Each structure stands twice: as structure tokens, then as C-alpha cells.
């Protein structure tokens, strides 16, 4: 199995070695994502599964059981820019590995099993995440069609570039009756499993983010001829907000039983040339906590700070809320069974919350869903150094195989 | 003349109206700069001048006198991104207008007159300024050939895309004997002329910048799963430097008789996506003062601050000095004659320093040179709202015509 895992993780990542200094870049609805999905299709077919692509570009690899009800598992193959090769891919790999294990052991499913590869999970390209799983759960907001990436390509154009028709994307929705449960395996992207001496994590809730776009309007001017006292430099005006977000999040985390994280993760200066004072700055802020009230309080504090910076620096600051979703609780019973399955194999578990959003949060809106974490080294993720060991991936396969056996068996 | 000025400034800017909300974008060695230079060629030829292009892409429009010695005037037609239509273009316009005035009045030059349109004056594209005039003065550092713009195009590639050969760029150098004097007219890009109740500025010295590139290496990570206490966020680390540069420059300006300005003008965050902690930030800092010691002290303070931020935030900060040139003094005698010429026409002058670099600073390294400023409204420059009135442009034509008559006459 380890050799198969090693070969297959490289194949899914379109490389000969997982050691890639620049990491992996497969944005949602890009050529690169499609190419990786084609590898998924080939591997699934070689395992005897039947693969179909839905109207949102998700792939489903099906193992027909005696009933048409589906136990589903899977994740995604898109990445952030210069990201790692395990975020998403580990879930795809372990799901396929679990099917392989069950096939090797002559298992015959009562309910049908599907391994799903969701399209465009990351928000890296459009600032909108989990487009594929939202479509399956029937909660896609079609007004995102005009949202553009940094090159001006819209969601609609990107989707249609992959030979899909945006006007039928909503037909990707699956009916409630169709699916019995969904189990996602993902890398932890943190160090709580290790910190608690466990081998895998079992997730109770997913902290969905509040995302803010902050637009600062100052006045451009020549850096050499505009005296310091006559400037309205948009970057100087916004700089204290960067420190504020970091310091306030630390303060809130110390004071609250549930942690909060907040990040100024994007920042664009215009015109961004050496001899011109920044006239305009746009910053993106990501705030997360499973404590929704705390998350909203943080957002309010940021808006308050922006008002005071407006006064101090004589600029105009607009704050737009891009995303504000409540946290998601996963299915208690399914979660308990998944935890039990892992522990029955001898792996100690750690119950935790997820600071990152995953496809499972959309599936959980409609079907009983669970999320399993396996460790990634030092918690490093969204980075070329992101890594999960073959030992942990093998464990993931074992756990998923056990879960599928229980959930899809008689 | 005003009608000619109005028509010609629009033609040089390739527009029907100077009111352009997005301003003007003609980067050095771009299609757009070439197009504007072709308009220059056409206007100059319509005035009876003979135009040639040198090995660096500069255009010289020549009016042969009785001697081969040249009195030269001119400026540039490239712009920053989304800049104004007068920075550079005003000097080109007034130089051509002065020739037209002298021709209309039947003037016959003793020495030859050349109107020069220098290539690539702005540092907006490559972070390197005045490539054309450096070539003419023989002080071009050819190792800049590998410096790239944000799209990865090198200086060499850009120059060669305009049908020039980089290997012969040094042949653009003019000999010492060839040129008697150089007089540039430029918009002030500040408000000192107006603040002192004058009509034009006469420049004693040009404050050349120190330019620093600051590279901050932190660690990328998932915004949702990396606890605040476990981060090394490159943007959080550099944020206090932005405030520091602004505050320290204000403090130095208050304490010193000669003002200092300093600006964090460029800032690039990597990977710059919503759910990834900034792992790397690169910032560009521009420092100017005619007091070179003060300028260097400011640079030292910035480097010192970076060392302390390295400690505070556990990041690695590298500071690279891109440019550090001493300030330039212009020719005292020529400057006095230019000042006298303007005042003889009834225009009060203001003696001042220039906070911005101009082509004249390279020409001054080899030939007696002078710099005349005309006002631009509210001092706004490098911005779509940059504007000089037809009244001030007409004055510029009159002053340059008077200067050329004196310098190129018998």
C-alpha cells in the first residue's frame, strides 16, 4: 500500500518528486486542476470505479452496491498558488486507497460508494471557496458568476473554459435521499493532534470565516516633491491596521476559551511604483473562530479602527464584508462512529474544531457528515513544505476503509 | 500659440481631451512611448527640424545653425502608470513651441539648436530612471540590462523590442565639445512657486534619491489553522516600518533647514491570497533631500529599524540599496542667465531645489545645464489630475524662446 500511496500522490500532483521548491499551483477551474482530475479519473477507473463529471465540474467515482443509496467520501485537487501537495490531495488519495483496500479484501458493498473530487475548493483564485461542493449541496450563490480573478477572468468564464455550461451549474445538486453520509479526510494544517499525543483528529465543528475587503483612498503624488505634511498616503494610513488585527486577535485568543485568528492576508498598493506615493490600497482580512460572536466582535473592532484611521490620516476607508457564515457543526452520531472506527484500529484520536473551511461544511448542510484529520508535519500548510508521512497516509486509508465498510456494509 | 499648445499637448498625449480619468500610461520603451515619440517626430518635422533617433532610442530634432555646436533643450514623453499628461510632455511641448516662436519671428540661429525627447525617464517600469539621458551623457551602467519589469521583461529585451540593439546603446553618448548647454523645462510637481508668489521656478540643485528594497522572509501558513502565537507573518513584521518611515521623515524635515521626504512606495505580499498568512513581503523605499548626509542618516535609521523588527517578529529582513546618488548642482552661470531671461519678460522667479530627479541631472554631469519649473495645479503630479494651464505653458514657451535666442544667437 505504501508504494501505491507514494506513486499515486505524485501522480495526482503531476510530479515525479514531492520535493518541489515552488510547491504546487492548481487553481480552481484551471488547466492544472483539470489535469490532476484526469489522473484521479484514471486511477479510479483502474480500480474498477465508474467516473462521471457533473455540471459543476466535480468528478464522482462510483462503486455500485445493492442499493442506490450512496456513502460518499472525498476531497479536492485544486491548490492555492505555490501551495502544498497534500491539502485536498491527501483526502482524494486516502479515499481511493480505502476503495482499493476494500476491493483487495473482496468486500462487496450493500450501499453504493462514491469517491468525489470536488472542483475549486480553495478561495485562492476568486476569493470564493468550495464552488464544487456548494453546487452539490444546492447552496451555490449564482451571483458569484461575475467575480473575477486577478487577470480579470470571471467565475463563469473560468467554469466554461473547462467545457461546462454555467447556465446549468445548479443541476449538479444531489437530492437529499441520494446520499446517506459524507466523510472527508483532510490534513490538519495545524499541530493539535501532535500536541495532544494523538494520531488523528476528529472534528466537531468548522469555523467559517468572516472576510473583509478594506479599500483605502488617499492621494497619489510624486515621492520627491510632495512635502511630508501635504500627503495623504493610503499605505501609511492602513499600516497601523495590520498591527492592530494581529494584536487584537492575540488579545481575544488569550481572553476566550475558543481561539480566534485574524490575518491581513492580501494587500495591494496602487500605483505601486518607486516614485509615486501610494494613492490607493486594498487589503483582505480573514477572521476565524468557532465562536461566531467573538468573530463578529473582531470584525466590529476592525471597522471601528478603520473609522479612527480615516480621521487620523484624512483618507477614505470603505469596509466590505465578502463572507460572513456561521460556524458549522458536524453530525454527532456519524462523528462518533468514525472516531470509534479509528480507535478500533488502535489509533488514539483528538476531538477538535477546524479553523479552516472544507468541502464537508457544505455537505453537512444537507447530509450527515464527518471530518477526519491526519497530521501534516509541523502544521505547515499552503506552503511548498507541506507534508504528510506515508505512515499517516496509510493510517488514513485504514480508517476510511473501516468507516466505508461500516457505513456501506449491511 | 495657445491653440497650437492645446492641440499639440493632446497630440503628444495621444488623446482628444486631457481629461482622462485613468490618466496616461506610457512606460519606457513601450509601444505607447514609441507612439508618442512618433507624434514628436511629426510635429518637429512640420516645424522644419530634422529628426534622428540615437542608439538609446532618444529623438533629436535639429535646427542647423552656422556652427555645429548645439544648444539643447527638451525632456521626455514616457509616464508612470496612470500618470499625468504634463510630466515630461510640458517640456517637450514648450521646447517645440519655442522653436516655432523663433521660426515665426524669422530668427536664424548662430549655433545649432536641438530639441531632445529622451527615452524612458521614469523609473516606473524598471526601477531605473533616465535611461535615455544617461546614455547621452555616457554614464549608463550597462549591467542594468537584466533588470526586469513586473512581467519579467528585461531592460535589454524592452530596448530591443523598439528595434534597437542593446549592444550598441553606448554609442548614444555625445561628445563634450558637441553640446554647449542643456536647458530642461519641467512641471514643478509641488507648490513652492505659488507658495512664494512667483510665476516660474529656477532650480539650483536636484535631490537624487536613495532607494532601498526591503525583503522580509517570514513563513506562510493557513490563516485558519495557525494559532496567533505560532506565526511569523511577514506583513505584520514590516507594518511598523511603514509608519516609522513616514514619522521619521516628518521629524527630520522639522529639524533640518533642508527638507527630507521618504516613502514606502511599493509593497508586494506573497502569496497574497485570502487564506494564506503572508510569508514574504518586498517593499521599496524612496528617500530624498538635497542634504545628502541627512538622506544617508535616514537610510541608516531605516536599516536600524529593520534590525529591531527582525528581533521583534522573528523574521529575516534584507535591505538592498538600489540607488544612492549624491545631489546634483546645476550650472550657476547658465542658471542665472535663464533666470534673467524669464524675469526680463516680466515673470517673477523663485530659486529652489528639486525633490524629483530629471534628465537634466545626467546632462549636468557633462555640460552646463539648467532647469526651469513651471507650475502645475495644486502640485498634483504622477496622477490623472496633473495639470498645467495654457497660460503657464505659454510662459514656458516664451522663456525657452528667449533663452534659446540668447544661447544660440551670435
What does this structure look like?
Two copies of one chain form a homodimer. Chain A has two domains: 2-207 and 327-408, Zn peptidases (Aminopeptidase); 210-324, Alpha-Beta Plaits, CATH 3.30.70. Chain A is built from eleven helices and 13 strands. Chain A has helices at 2-12, 31-46, 89-104, 131-137, 155-161, 192-195, 234-255, 292-313, 332-344, 360-363, 390-408; strands spanning 50-53, 59-63, 70-76, 112-118, 179-187, 200-206, 210-217, 261-270, 280-288, 316-324, 328-329, 349-354, 369-374. In chain A, the strands form two sheets. In chain A, strands 1, 2, 3, 4, 5, 6, 11, 12 and 13 form a nine-stranded mixed sheet that branches. The first copy, chain A, has a four-stranded antiparallel sheet with strand order 8-9-7-10, with helices on one face. In chain A, α3 (89-104) crosses α11 and α9 crosses α11 (390-408). Chain A is globular. Chains A and B meet through α7, β8 and β9 of A and α7, β8 and β9 of B. Chains A, B: It comes from Rossellomorea vietnamensis. Chains A, B: This is M20 family metallo-hydrolase.
Gist of the model:
The structure is a homodimer of 410-residue chains. With 410 residues, chain A is α/β, with parallel strands linked by helices.
The low-pLDDT segments of chain A are none
Total domain count of chain A: 2
- State the shape of chain A: globular
The succession of helices and strands of chain A, N to C, reads HHEEEHEHHEHEEHEEHEEHEHEH
What would the average pLDDT of chain A be, to the nearest integer? 96
Alpha-beta classification of chain A: alpha/beta
Oligomeric state: homodimer
The CATH homologous superfamily of the largest domain in chain A is termed Zn peptidases
Number of helices of chain A: 11
Largest interface: chains, residues each: A-B, 72 and 72 residues
**Cα-based radius of gyration of chain A, to the nearest Å:** 23 Å
Q: What gap, in angstroms, lies between the N and C termini of chain A?
A: 26 Å
Share of residues in helices of chain A: 25-40%
Structure summary, number of beta strands of chain A:
13
**What do we call the CATH topology of the largest domain in chain A?**
Aminopeptidase
Proportion of residues in β-strands of chain A: 15-25%
Per CATH, the architecture of the largest domain in chain A is: 3-Layer(aba) Sandwich
Amino acid at each position: 500500500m505504501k508504494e501505491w500511496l507514494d506513486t499515486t500522490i505524485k501522480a495526482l500532483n503531476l510530479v515525479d518528486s514531492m520535493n518541489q521548491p515552488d510547491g504546487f499551483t492548481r487553481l480552481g477551474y484551471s488547466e492544472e486542476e483539470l489535469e490532476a482530475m484526469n489522473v484521479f479519473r484514471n486511477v479510479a477507473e483502474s480500480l474498477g470505479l465508474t467516473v462521471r463529471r457533473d455540471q459543476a465540474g466535480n468528478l464522482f467515482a462510483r462503486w455500485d452496491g445493492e442499493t442506490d443509496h450512496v456513502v460518499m467520501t472525498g476531497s479536492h485537487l485544486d491548490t492555492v498558488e505555490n501551495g502544498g501537495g497534500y491539502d485536498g490531495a491527501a483526502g482524494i488519495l486516502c479515499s481511493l486507497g480505502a476503495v482499493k483496500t476494500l476491493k483487495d479484501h473482496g468486500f462487496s458493498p450493500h450501499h453504493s460508494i462514491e469517491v468525489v473530487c470536488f472542483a475549486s475548493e480553495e478561495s485562492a483564485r476568486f476569493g470564493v471557496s468550495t464552488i464544487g461542493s456548494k453546487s452539490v449541496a444546492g447552496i451555490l450563490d449564482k451571483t458569484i458568476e461575475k467575480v473575477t480573478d486577478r487577470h480579470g477572468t470571471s467565475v463563469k468564464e473560468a467554469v466554461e473554459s473547462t467545457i461546462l455550461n454555467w447556465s446549468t451549474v445548479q443541476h449538479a445538486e444531489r437530492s437529499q435521499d441520494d446520499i446517506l453520509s459524507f466523510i472527508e479526510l483532510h490534513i490538519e494544517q495545524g499541530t493539535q493532534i501532535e500536541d495532544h499525543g494523538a494520531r488523528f483528529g476528529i472534528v466537531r465543528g468548522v469555523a467559517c470565516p468572516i472576510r473583509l475587503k478594506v479599500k483605502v483612498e488617499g492621494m497619489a503624488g510624486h515621492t520627491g516633491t510632495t512635502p511630508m505634511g501635504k500627503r495623504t498616503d493610503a499605505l501609511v494610513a492602513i499600516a497601523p491596521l495590520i498591527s492592530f488585527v494581529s494584536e487584537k486577535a492575540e488579545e481575544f485568543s488569550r481572553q476566550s476559551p475558543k481561539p480566534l485568528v485574524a490575518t491581513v492576508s492580501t494587500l495591494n498598493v496602487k500605483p505601486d511604483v518607486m516614485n509615486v506615493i501610494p494613492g490607493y490600497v486594498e487589503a483582505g482580512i480573514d477572521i476565524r473562530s468557532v465562536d461566531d460572536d467573538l468573530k463578529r466582535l473582531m470584525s466590529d473592532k476592525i471597522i471601528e479602527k478603520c473609522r479612527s484611521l480615516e480621521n487620523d490620516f484624512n483618507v477614505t476607508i470603505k469596509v466590505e464584508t465578502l463572507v460572513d457564515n456561521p460556524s458549522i457543526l458536524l453530525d454527532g452520531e456519524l462523528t462518533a462512529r468514525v472516531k470509534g472506527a479509528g480507535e478500533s484500529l488502535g489509533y488514539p484520536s483528538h476531538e477538535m474544531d477546524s479553523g479552516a473551511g472544507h468541502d464537508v461544511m457544505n455537505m453537512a448542510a444537507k447530509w450527515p457528515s464527518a471530518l477526519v484529520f491526519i497530521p501534516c508535519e509541523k502544521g505547515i500548510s499552503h506552503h511548498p513544505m507541506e507534508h504528510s508521512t506515508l505512515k499517516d497516509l496509510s493510517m488514513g486509508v485504514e480508517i476510511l476503509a473501516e468507516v466505508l465498510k461500516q457505513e456501506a456494509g449491511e
